[in-house]
Amino acid sequence: MRKIFIVMIFLCGALFAQNKIEFFPGDLNVSPFTAKMIEPKIGFSFQTGANELELNIGNSSDILHYKIGRNETLSFGADFFTFTLLRGEANFHFPVDAVDYLFGLNFGYKTMLNDNEIGVRVRLSHISAHFVDGHYEGVNKRWKDNLNPRVYSREFVEVLPFYKTGSLRAYAGFTYIFSVDPESIGKDNYHLGFEYFQPKAMFNLFRFFIAYDLKVIHLDKYTANNSVQVGVRFGKTYGKGFGIYYQYYSGKSHHGEYYDFPKSYSAIGLNLEL
Asked: Could you tell me which of 150, 144, 125, 98 has the C-alpha nearest to residue 254?
């Protein structure tokens, strides 16, 4: 027994000698997907031709990175953010119509294959949605457009494998909702998308980019949500920086209180990654 114990200690020591654990690393192992709607963002977007503003406050942080040799990295982290629907009024007032809260855990894996990256991000998350006081008409003592608050929440696992070659990253995956209210909502969603950043920065300052995300959601039937972004990125391509972009979106609303409402709009936005 003593010999077995000594061998186990030796093997563990050899394993950790070849690997490295880093707590609270500076960058994410798997960066957010640019055009995907429910991603960690700090910023806003103004819809053109409509009195609506999207405000995002939150972040995703890796708690640890576990390096396997030189080319493979495992990660574990947490997500906490909100995405909020507002409208503009006089005197720089922005009443909050609806807000969605997301919190959960994420797991990442990334490895190098020649000069390319292959990886996957897995999320285990909860989202709940709420109308706020900006949706209430105090003068008329009723909810705006006669839309009363309704219970909306979901718990889900999301699996997104990706492949990156040069300046192009593509991904495809699925979401399985294992608990949802209202229960009539389907439990399977599917994802497909890409993003392309200009390889060389202009004036060593910014890069142009284009990104697209397709999300096929299951309500009473399947429907497609499309999100396209075109813009410029300052700072790191994947890491700290900020982007200014034009976005076109069509499909069902990504806000839970409006989950079965169709949306189609253009917007100008800014997003920070800190």
From this structure: 98
Q: Map out the domains of the chain as residue ranges.
A: 20-273
Q: Is the pLDDT of residue 5 over 50?
A: no
Quickly name the fold that domain 20-273 has. Answer: Outer membrane phospholipase (ompla); Chain C (2.40.230)
- Say whether pTM exceeds 0.85: yes
Helix (H) or strand (E) holding 2: helix 2-18
Residues 6 or more apart whose Cβ sits within 8 Å of residue 185: 154, 177, 218, 219, 259
Beta bridge partners of 221: none
Does pLDDT of 61 surpass 80?
A: yes
Report the distance separating Cα 201 and Cα 144, nearest Å.
46
Distance CA 47, CA 240 (A): 25
b/e map of 176-204 (b: 16 or more CB within 10 Å)? ebeebeeeebeeebebebbbbbeeebeee
- Mention every residue, 6+ apart, whose C-beta is less than 8 A from residue 230: 208, 209, 210, 211, 245, 246
Residue pair 110/71 in contact by the 8 Å Cβ criterion: no
